[in-house]
Amino acid sequence: MLRFLLALPGLSVMVAFALSNPEPVRLGMWPFETTVELPLSVAILAVGAIFFMFGALLVWVPGLSARVRARRAEQRAARLEAQLQAQLQENAPRGRAVALIRN
């Protein structure tokens, strides 16, 4: 719900922009002869979305190695906690169970 409330102003601006720029524009690329006619707002919002995804990819890819290292560290910590718990149970006096206290 909080995400929706935070996104609402941006979405409102995009809707207002799209409604106020309905004029068609012709788009083409230099080496190709084909052109496409779109409303100006669609063209600009599509370019913005493409560059947003490109920027997100530029941020996501370098962080991938850090996320992999963090996942491996969590798995190793869980294994070490299990080994410690087993050692504590093994070394505990008979008839008494020892539990590992977690914060």
Structural notes for this entry:
The chain is mainly α and about 100 residues long. The protein has a domain at about 5-75. The protein has two helices and two strands; from the N terminus they run αββα. The chain has helices at about 1-20, 40-90, and strands spanning about 25-30, 35-40. A two-stranded antiparallel ribbon has the order 1-2. The longest helix is centred in the middle third of the chain and has 52 residues, at about 40-90. The mean pLDDT is about 85.
Q: Secondary-structure map with pairings?
A:
Layout lengths: L1 H19 L3 E5 L6 E5 H52 L12
Antiparallel strand pairs: 1-2
Helix pairs in contact: 1-2
TL;DR of this structure?
The chain is built from two helices and two strands; from the N terminus they run H-E-E-H. With 103 residues, the protein is mostly helical. Helix 1 packs antiparallel against helix 2 (40-91).
